[in-house]
Amino acid sequence: MKKYVLFLLFALFVTSITMGQNVKLITYNIRYDNPGDKENPWDERKEVITSQITFYEPGVFGIQEGLSHQVEFLDSQLATYNYVGVGRDDGKTEGEYSAVYYHHNRFTEEDHGTFWLSETPEQPSVGWDAALERICTWVLLEHKESGKKLRVFNTHFDHRGELARANSARLILRKMEEISQPGEALVLMGDLNAVPDEEPIEVIDEKLKDARLASETEPFGPEGTYNRFNYEEPVKRRLDYIFVKDVEVVKYGVLNDPVNLHFPSDHFPVFAELRLK
Question: Sheet holding 240-245: strands in order across?
């Protein structure tokens, strides 16, 4: 009996250590505050988005398309999170952000940065055949409970430039190799404006693991992530991804939560639970 109790206590201890090293992430294109979205204005969506994030309580989440006032709104409502990021137009506050938020009770920020998806990544610029400036924001975090390092890259690829999307994938992979250090868990997430059989995704698949395919449990929700605010049709087009390296994927899901027959964004948030090695 005594041996059984000791074994049970040891098993519970191991389980608690393992669970303590699990990290939940979300990537979320929140849709920029577009005055033309008459049926889906930001002011009617923003509380739902903050409620979603509060409910799922990720350790880290990244957004795309957030303008400065949207980024600041999320920051003001989510008191347990800090964020890093800049506007893509000027490297300060102008234009859309690819901001990364992290739960400051669970993580310590060690470093962060932003680079442009272009031939001149260190300065605001439009790359290749892209229509607009595009950026990737990254942050290096230390998981307080385990001391393990997690480096997260968050991005939004161009919607028009095919060459820009493919070269953006190659640039980010190169930057990941340059910036990261041995032993760090790596995450690349964002709206990549490409479906799985297109070149940008195939390029990334050569170096990183697609969280949907790597998940230990059956993926939850639809495969598609781009809903176009259309509640009436199945969502089949997958544009939003979480890729990982040197980390295990416990769960993956596409969170298609409607409220009063409306989606809070024209993209679904993508969720993954990771186990830090």
Answer: 107-116, 135-143, 149-156, 185-191, 240-245, 209-210
